[in-house]
Amino acid sequence: LDYFPFRLAEESHRQDSANLLIFITLLTLTILTIWLFKHRRFRFLHETGLAMIYGVLVGVILRFGVHVPQNMSDVILGCAVNNSPATLLVNVSGRFYEYTLKGEVGRGKGHQVQDDEMLRKVTFDPEVFFNILLPPIIFHAGYSLKRRHFFRNIGSILAYAFVGTVISCFVIGLIMYGFVSFMKAVGQLGGDFFFTDCLFFGAIVSATDPVTVLAIFNELKVDVDLYALLFGESVLNDAVAIVLSSSIVAYQPAGDNSHSFEAMAMLKSFGVFLGVFSGSFALGVATGFMTFTKLRDFPLLETALFFLMSWSTFLLAEACGFTGVVAVLFCGITQAHYTFNNLSPDSQDRTKQLFELLNFLAENFIFSYMGLTLFSFQSHVFNPLFIFGAFLAVFLGRAANIYPLSFLLNLGRKNKIGSKFQHVMMFAGLRGAMTFALSIRDTATYARQMMFSTTLLIVFFTVWICGGGTTPMLFCALHPIYRTFNQKFYVKVTVFFFRVGVDSDQDSPRRDTKHESAWPFRIWYNFDHNYLKPLLTHSGPPLTATLPTCCGPLARCLTSPQAYENEGRLFDDDSDSILNDATVSSMYADVTVSTDASGRTVNRSSGTRGLSDDCVDHDLALAEHEVAIRGTRLVLPVDDPVEPPTTVTLPSPPSPPGSEPRRQRL
Amino acid sequence: LDYFPFRLAEESHRQDSANLLIFITLLTLTILTIWLFKHRRFRFLHETGLAMIYGVLVGVILRFGVHVPQNMSDVILGCAVNNSPATLLVNVSGRFYEYTLKGEVGRGKGHQVQDDEMLRKVTFDPEVFFNILLPPIIFHAGYSLKRRHFFRNIGSILAYAFVGTVISCFVIGLIMYGFVSFMKAVGQLGGDFFFTDCLFFGAIVSATDPVTVLAIFNELKVDVDLYALLFGESVLNDAVAIVLSSSIVAYQPAGDNSHSFEAMAMLKSFGVFLGVFSGSFALGVATGFMTFTKLRDFPLLETALFFLMSWSTFLLAEACGFTGVVAVLFCGITQAHYTFNNLSPDSQDRTKQLFELLNFLAENFIFSYMGLTLFSFQSHVFNPLFIFGAFLAVFLGRAANIYPLSFLLNLGRKNKIGSKFQHVMMFAGLRGAMTFALSIRDTATYARQMMFSTTLLIVFFTVWICGGGTTPMLFCALHPIYRTFNQKFYVKVTVFFFRVGVDSDQDSPRRDTKHESAWPFRIWYNFDHNYLKPLLTHSGPPLTATLPTCCGPLARCLTSPQAYENEGRLFDDDSDSILNDATVSSMYADVTVSTDASGRTVNRSSGTRGLSDDCVDHDLALAEHEVAIRGTRLVLPVDDPVEPPTTVTLPSPPSPPGSEPRRQRL
Fold it and tell me: Labelling B163: which of A218, B14, B448, B567 has CA 20 to 30 A away?
């Protein structure tokens, strides 16, 4: 009697465990297959695409193979409540039980409540995506941003992310409104679909996914500036799309779903957009600024604190009504720029690895869940006309974002965005986790259900076709001589980019970058390097050297003792970047794994920060390894009839201070 | 209209974020204070005690400072249901909304539903503890177990854990039954309290906490065998207590709460105990055996897989009706013994650090939540008589566990358990996370509420008084001359144990340990070393060498290629342990931090496994550091009138193979 709730909870708990086990098994399978693909150097399908396929398979099995009838203990209450409260207190013979709203139950064809317990059980609360799975992905994106290149291209990135996304949102919204009006005219529409719904759809499918871009381009070692452009755009994109979609919801006049255009509401919505975005930005940056300089001796405490700080940024933003994901993105960027320098080397490793792991797990989970929902979601509305219209709109929206903006930006840029790279940007605009999370958040109405189903197909298409196809497409665009997919080809490409890197290095020596950059960047760089970095980190020159002499006592007070010690060996601004190539290669390990492993050991044991994040440097490191193997000359087998085998004589690698070159020692 | 659920969810989500933020802030505060304590070498209070104090403070504020009236959108339904189903489908004007049971709502004095929204919101689902917070703690305990010493003392550990916990459970149960009967007689009891409830209480308060034991004893470098005894007991304790408590619930005849003794039900309950325990054990060990030998090149995949495997062990056990926590404990022990050897060095670091972090966060979260519930839980039943009885029973139960068993065990042991150490075991039996989690799992009845409140007080008392007091108590017991708490004292203690270590080393050279051990251990050691290790890992001799020649083809087939490479440099069995001293010191960093940091660099750069986990070796490493600082003689300032300053001439540290001693290089 008294133990009834206890046993009931046990039973329900066993079911939940079994359901969660399905997802864990999915992830395990995905990991094993990823390993197999990497091991066999099979690259036609990206790992996220793979996770989706497994998800689809399990979805099919759950949908058609297993049928668990609804638990008889579920009671259907027909009560006199005219809305659905978030919490329900049920008075069961004098005792009060609390129930929380899980959501509206999907209805089948005949508007009957579906009775498949299993399908209902494997459906997650959509908020899980926003509160648990997205934050680590977005934080990792910010934390691993190559900031030097990001800030050098900040103007173009902001243009693509803000102007471009808004353009894309409205272009898609208008096209969809045309389609929806047509469908209504021919009687193809089964419910309401308003103009704001169209705009909302435009906003959610305008968010391109940084995950796949990061993965593919890291593997290919494309020109870093262009990479930063594309990656920066796709990261900020997400932030803009979230804020845009919630502004559109706020714009929707309460209780009045007409599509009349109201200037006041439009302005209000714009105000919401600005307020939420700047609030989230400020919050993220502020938390990133908080630095803990004295915890260095306790890496565990430091790592835990770092983790909690980034999580609390997210929660604080959500609690304030801002957007947690946006806050966490800027928190990641700021922490990578300042806080990272204050961490002990041990914690630097730990935080990098922790967020890498969280990102990997969350990302693969989302994509396999996506595959699963294709069959497990019970309220799909697949409308062929709408789907066709959506694909067309997404394509045109992306084109209206990239091409005109690139043309305008090229008027001002020194390093032009080539037309081939514009095509790459056009096709690398995959839709991923963010689009999915935004569309699954609310699937209550007919319009939202149709949006969700269509969005799912768009994500599938872009990840499988564009994602799988970006790799070859990219090479077609950038390097027309490319022919086969074999292993030597990758060496060839590396050499190609190596030479490109060396050439660009000769054209513009890297120490001069700050002189050739645009003046806002230069001013920011100087301010950051002379004042912010010394104030917030141990690196950079001490404030006593950079502030005017009249501020001497203040400067002495604000400079940490370590800053003086570091004065002699000032870190190069480049080397602050977090995702150095060793990390990349350990993530997407290839022929170069052993290189980086040994390279890293050298860096670690000598205590210096090692080689910087530049593409050029990476290839130098690679070449250094090759030299170590083959002697002092780098001869790489390039079986290209146009280009003869390349022989490059390399400068000896810079020896870290305080230790002799490594090979002489052994 | 249509966006109502969307907005409602947003609002509810903001509240949840704010509540979670309270806990994150608590954890952050705890971390900062822990750092301050470590930095200032203040050791009178353990960090878990600290987390509790912060929890209590926030609980007081929430209880008396903030009053958020219940949300008006909560609707109280008085429905004709005679039990509380797990899922409720509410028909709101044609739409079905799903509600999930959160639990019974606490009632205030007048059996009215309390209307404080805030207090209700900060209350977690008790299952969170079992499914999210406990598994990493228990896994970490298993993964960081010093297995050599654990297996050497396995007999005594099993005796304490199984026999001792059952004794303690029944002693406490009987004493409590006496108290409860007395209370019923004098009219002090406000509800039912059966004999099975008493036994249940005995089971949950018999679980001693490994966390605090681990922390305190690691800091003190006590004799490893005794440490293994205490730690092993407290780890297995938890497993036994969980299974015991669920067996007692199963014993309770359904619908009949009389305290009649039924032989049949007792037998059934014993069968449940054995079945659940052996099932969980088998499952944990089986998952630990699964090895992935070819993933070495991809540390990220390897770490992710390792993490998922341990989590799926937990879920699988729960889904099968076994006990996930027990399964995860044995999974941790097995993985540390076999799988750990197959991981790449990078993944070994990563997994260690990951579980260390998870353990740290989960542990501090549980303890601060404990503090919080003292004031936020709304159904406390504090009965002074019951509390007094419980404290007495816990004390007597522990005594009935330790002293008789130690006497019996000493009859068979060569390395006797001294009477002073028995006192230490008596007082180091803190109650912690597991006791709390078991008691909060069900607080529906009056008996359970009284148990929960009392358990909370017991945990508070043992953590604050015994936990804070174990350190000095331990020294009083082991080293009577000890006087002050200053810094030199710690050096003195280290020297004391250093000499103890050296002495015991001379008495029994460590290479001979397997010859002096009991024969079951010896058989197991040989079987494990010759067959299991080569089969499941890359270490150990190849099977071709250990199997009889007739099994040649089979042996060649089962031996991995790496095993042959490793043949020359067989790892010592000692060095398999995971929690080496570098890790310990980085967790509880003290004077020795720089030592271990440099020591670790040597190990890492030279590629060997480094010094083993033995107490002796640690002190040698410490001494080595001292020598590096002061010359070749170790003179430590011991200001003890009885003992003159100790001068120990140390052997030169063993140089890792393949590299010259470190100091000559620099």
Answer: B448
